[in-house]
Design goal:
The chain is mainly beta. 8% of the residues lie in helices and 35% in strands. β6 and β7 form a beta hairpin. The longest helix has 7 residues. The protein starts with a helix and ends in a 7-residue tail after the last strand.
């Protein structure tokens, strides 16, 4: 058994309740740190009420997984653009420019899983933003 597998086998389960800080008001609506999870992964819970709202074009040196929990999101990942709906999962590979926006008609809620112990983000110039 590898060292990492051994540590995982000896780690207790973790439950982070929304009332304990996993959620808060505002567009970023909360997060759970890698430290709190006991992993090398952290989670964000963004909410964008306004159609067209979302993060700017950016890149991370690690993969990011998106789960649409409410609404519809228009994703741009590299050269691809697609719409994901409630229950869909999208992945932005490491070092790939990406963004998403509320595609409407209602609010957009996502769970963004960052495969890193810390948030590292580089915002990029977006030619579509003007």
């Amino acid at each position: 058994m590898t060292n990492k597998a051994s540590r995982a086998a000896n780690r207790p389960p973790v439950l982070i309740r929304a009332a304990d800080g996993a959620h808060r008001e505002g567009p970023w609506n909360g997060s759970v740190s890698a430290e709190a999870l006991g992993t090398d992964t952290f989670v964000l819970f963004p909410r964008f009420e306004e159609v067209g709202a979302g993060p700017v074009l950016h890149v991370h040196p690690y993969d990011e997984i998106f789960v649409v929990t409410k609404g519809r999101a228009r994703f741009t990942v590299g050269e691809e653009t697609f719409v994901a709906e409630e229950g869909d999962v999208a992945v932005a590979p490491a070092n790939t420019p990406h963004k998403f926006a509320n595609a409407g008609p209602g609010p957009l809620h996502t769970m963004d899983i960052h495969l890193s112990a810390e948030w590292i983000q580089y915002d990029l110039h977006d030619p579509e933003a003007g």
